[in-house]
Amino acid sequence: MKLTIPKPRIVYNIHWKLNDGGRKEAGYKGHTGDCACRAIAIATGLPYKEVYNLINEYAKRERPTKRRPKRSHARTGVHTHTMHQIIESLGWQWKPTMKIRQSCKVHLLASELPTGKIIVRLSKHYSAVIDGVAQDTYDASRNGTRCVYGYWHKP
Hints:
globular
């Protein structure tokens, strides 16, 4: 019986850079659940206030349901469906990295993500990643174990 040793997987942990997306410069204070607004502002280069207003405009069109009784808001969180509409209206494309009932295939690691500017969707969080560097107010990688559901990229 021949014993085979698997090739080691090269893992490049993602670097993290503190970036609030221009929130402080726009005159907002404190910490809040505005990850979608920050991620869009960082990745697209749009001003934070403009993205904030854009998200709230899209939120006005939402219809509350049993599963989503509250509307999205730039400060407190954006529903996934609304996030898709907003980013696709800006000309970005969605690339799913996992399917329903499938284990995690892509983690928040520089070695598993494409280069360039992308917005990653994580569990209850969005983050901008630019050339393997996560741009956020905290390190959301969980030491490289955080699963990426998919990402938006500009074609």
